[in-house]
UniProtKB/TrEMBL annotation, chains A, B:
InterPro entries: CinA, CinA-like_C, CinA_C, CinA_KH, Competence-induced_CinA, MoaB/Mog-like_dom_sf, MoaB/Mog_dom. PANTHER family: NICOTINAMIDE-NUCLEOTIDE AMIDOHYDROLASE PNCC, NMN AMIDOHYDROLASE-LIKE PROTEIN YFAY. It comes from the Bacteria. SUPFAM superfamilies: CinA-like (SSF142433), Molybdenum cofactor biosynthesis proteins (SSF53218). Residues 5-171 form the MoaB/Mog domain. This is CinA-like protein. Belongs to the CinA family. It holds the Pfam family MoCF_biosynth.
């Protein structure tokens, strides 16, 4: 398989505040073409380091892609350093200069003299049109090496890659096709999943299997390479099929959808409606349900009842029930679900009550204790969880287990 | 100033699914010691590339830190490659082996033979105790170069850096101290902020100024270097003071706090309480308010009224008002705020109604149109916004402008 290196250029990427995300997008695109990424480098606006990094990359990899450093200011050194490394003087291209000047004029602005720099292109290199900005991209063929310079802003870089670079790389991919598949799993931890599926995936080197724990759920990525898409898909089918079988209903998504998308899809298909009653999650469950476009078809209303008094007034949870069992209890979770379902007139009601911390925990009811209640026309039930982590993580996990309980109770 | 390179090792970091975040944390730590990061590299479990990357780094930088690749499996090649690059054979250290075996036994497990590898340390190198895992870190002094190998998992890497590495690097920092400060700005775009403050910060090369647009707000980072903390702070005071003056109340946070933290802090100080009524944000405003530990003191309840009927029943918004002006209108936003305030009995009520898209927009009321209403004891008012971006961004921006309107109306 052919391989590439990616170099991100810009001093802001060497601060604690910003990371290079372009390379993740580029990696997905390259992989889809059957090109693996073997090294990624971040350098600042620093001629010495950029020069050495470029030389190393061109020595080791047939495809080298840089992002950033093509702007109009002194800091933007990519063009200059590339000219030196490839021993090609920079030549001013009048047609590019005209286009840049025109882009400014069409917005009623005068081009600053600085921007002339952006019309400089190394000799015998090809400029790539930038539809969404002034900096053109550049492609240089150095013997059997391809050096591709792209602008840093994703909204300029991505369309430029898609339109101009992808067609040029496709022939390099040769005969290898890469296909990926993603499964998402709820209700199980990373090591639990691994124990179950390791006997399957360790028997295969193709596809490769990656297990990620994404804060709240286990994600399984499978990548197969083969001479054709169909053969790669067949390799995936073989392994993913076995994995799906041992994980059963714990797999909630087979094409990378989120849990809220799956719940929304199934609610729509069944014609169900849902209302939420939240305490410790403070709106997060409703927020996730309404993240999905079109959710107004099934999500009718939600109540965040932080104060006990609000649980009684807004949801009809009897004050005596709260007094008898405490606000964080199975009884109150079920009463919240029943109450919000009755008042909203929905098919399903879901209630969450718990202790997200950092304060408020006791020996009997520790931080992380969460009860989820669900109510339908013929069933009212609950589950108890002790969730790990800090406030943020507990709240996110609580919204996840609530969505998953709705899925398992009403939507399988 | 001294400088460092960071190398992240692991094939999973060369997939589209995962990025190296250790280097951001390490950069903050190194910067605090007065050490700049000049290059970051990600390589896979790939001996050839790792070897070359290590050689280049040691040639160019006095401090080289690697993360990852110290595990017990065949894939974990860091020790082996470092031994080759530094020409130091790997020596089995019996005391480390005992400790690893003991760590397994204390959890009732038997050590797998693989784990013996983790007790291999290059000759004359120093092993660093790993309190939270089995892989020890390694420090090698190569002439005037310091090569530091750390494990990949953040919960192992961070305490190891803090306990063992930081004290070793402190002398390298020499006489330079680095101090940073962060301002956050609401209600202004990136270029608006830049127009106002560029005349200030461009007059200084120290501190450096970085402007970031963080999806919903502008963040300003200032970094000053000086022989002492006090001098660095004085440099910051000079520039940041001028910037604060021109930006005025648009600066909502001076120490990096989030907008919801600032709103929560001011609500607490004033003894105010708040309730929310949300439509298009679907719970996100309440979620952000309750992200803050201790928010139950001021956040009493929230209602997500997606359906018009819920706006009337839950919030007392007159059906005629909705019929006359539409659900997305200034009148309804104010009525939602007034309604939720009255029913919850809080000091402040806030209402949001808008069109988050992708569907539901019209020529008259386009996607992105959002009204925020706020109600206090003596004032009811609203603001209209046309927010850019996709559904996610519009919802996030809507929650941001709502929090900011609460801040500006009641909390200055």
């Amino acid at each position: 398989m052919s391989h590439a290196e990616i170099i991100a250029i810009g001093s802001e990427l060497l601060t604690p505040f910003r990371s290079d995300t372009n390379s993740l997008w580029l990696t997905a695109e390259l992989n889809a073409l059957g090109i693996a990424v073997r090294r990624k480098t971040v350098v600042g606006d620093d001629e010495l380091f950029l020069e050495e990094t470029l030389r190393d990359a061109l020595r080791n990899s047939p495809v080298v892609i840089t992002t950033g450093g093509l702007g109009p200011t002194e800091d933007d050194i990519t063009r200059k350093v590339v000219a030196r490394v490839t021993q090609r003087p920079l030549v001013l291209q009048p047609d590019i200069l005209d286009r840049i000047r025109h882009q400014f004029e069409s917005r009623g602005l005068k081009m600053a003299p600085n921007n002339e720099r952006q019309a400089l292109v190394p000799r015998d290199a090809e400029a790539l049109h930038n539809e969404y900005g002034t900096a053109p991209g550049i492609v240089i063929a150095e013997g059997d090496r391809l050096l591709i310079l792209l602008p840093g802003p994703p909204r300029e870089m991505r369309p430029m890659f898609t339109t101009h670079v992808r067609p040029r790389l496709a022939p390099l991919a040769g005969s290898t096709r890469l296909r990926t598949r993603t499964l998402r799993v709820a209700g199980m931890g990373e090591s639990q999943v691994d124990d179950l599926i390791a006997p399957i995936y360790t028997r295969y080197t193709n596809p490769t299997t990656t297990i990620l724990f994404n804060n709240t759920e286990v994600e399984l990525h499978f990548t197969a390479s083969a001479p054709s898409d169909a053969e790669a898909e067949a390799l995936l089918d073989e392994v993913v099929g076995q994995v799906e079988q041992v994980l059963g209903v714990n797999v909630f998504s087979h094409c990378g959808e989120t849990l809220e998308q799956i719940v929304g899809l199934r609610l729509t298909l069944k014609g169900y409606t849902i209302a939420t009653a939240e305490s410790c999650t403070g709106g997060l469950l409703s927020k996730r349900l309404t993240d999905v476009p079109g959710s107004s078809k099934y999500f009718l209303e939600g109540v965040i009842a932080y104060a006990n008094e609000a649980k009684t007034r807004r949801l009809g949870v009897p004050a005596e029930l709260i007094a008898a069992h405490g606000a964080v209890s199975a009884e109150v979770a079920e009463a919240m679900a029943t109450g919000v379902k009755a008042r909203a007139g929905t098919t399903i009601g879901v209630g969450i009550t718990g202790i997200a911390g950092p304060d408020g925990g006791t020996d009997e009811k520790p931080v992380g204790l969460v009860y989820v209640g669900v109510a339908g026309d013929f069933i009212v039930t609950h589950r108890k969880f002790i969730l790990p982590g800090d406030r943020d993580r507990i709240r996110h996990l609580a919204s996840q287990v609530a969505l998953d309980l709705v899925r398992r109770t009403f939507l399988l």
